[in-house]
Amino acid sequence: MKKLLPSHFVQSVIGANEAVFVWGSRHMLHALVPERRLGHVRAALRQRKLTATLLQHDVSQYCVEQANSRRTKEFGWSAYYDVDDIYAYLRNMSARYPAWAAPVVGGRSYEGRDILGLRVRKPGAGAANKPAIFIESGIHAEEWITSATITYFINELLTSNDPNMTALRDNFDWHIFPLVNPDGYHYSMNNDIMWRKTRSKSPNGCFGADPNRNWDYKWDLALNASSDPCDNRYTGSRPFSEVETRTLASYIAAVANLQAYLAFHSNAQMLLVPYSDSKEHVDNYDDLIQVGKVTLEYGRRVNGAKYDGVGTVAEMLYPASGGSMDWVRHTLRTPLVYTWELRGWALPCWPAARIPEQGDEVTQMIHGLTVEARKLGYLK
Fold first, then answer.
1. Which tens digit of pLDDT belongs to each residue from 176-212?
2. Which residue range forms the structural domain that includes residue 19?
3. Among the options 136, 142, 341, 361, which is catalytic?
4. Considering the domain boundaries, does residue 247 fall inside one?
């Protein structure tokens, strides 16, 4: 569709009591609709002189196939792996490269899992003063491609002999967490492919809160969010009600010399900067835009994929509140804060066989970000 339509329009077409998932940008809208309502939706769109293309008849079956893609004995990037496999990979990499990488625990989950990550930095003189970069992915459970992409980046960071990669490894103090919502991710892979939230239990019997609507920044605005515990975008009962967000925030706040915070989502194909609740611009907005544009150009050179942006969430998508990116910027005053929406417009489940495409793009984008940021005086 040439013009973005609000989600409530789609809901009105499908029916008020029907479940619907809608995602999009300023240029395109995608929706998952019940099969029994497909004819009705098509007729309603025709009546409004709008056209739509059926991209996948059975999304759930397609995503199940991706979840069950054949895993190799050794961790790789032609399949999606569950929590235990991802964590085993992180521990294995720290064992293989003990001089550079160490496992770190960024918090705990409701079901008792660690939020496990890797800290990567070159030892030696000056190690303690290197600019720190924090990477977060997998906060929304069903966005499997984000965790796969960040493990791919970890592999490049630790194993590549490319001078650009060794420079990343040598110059920065990395805190990388591929999976900050492990309970939800595990549930999504094994029970409900569209599961987005945590797995905490509300008094009314519903489960989970949206962990990217639960941070203590403009939480009470509940923008693009809900106070209903059964809703997919439930804010939680209070800011940091979820142990995952609460403990992760404590870890982030303790990171010395934190200069950049990079968050990864899917799948709107854009690069975003704070803030999300309004079109207000932060004081170094122009620098963020310049660095962001260069970042996207580095990625475009890999596969020719063009991302939208750079802009605030309110400008590029919709007003939102309670997100990690905004909390980090507002509370910690971290100068470089970005959120990626990775590719995947056609389907919510990026094909497992094409994980390296996004891995290569993101690796080059992170490299480009550091190059341009340093030109402007950041990350020194």
1. 999 999 999 999 999 998 899 999 999 999 999 999 9
2. 7-54
3. 341
4. yes
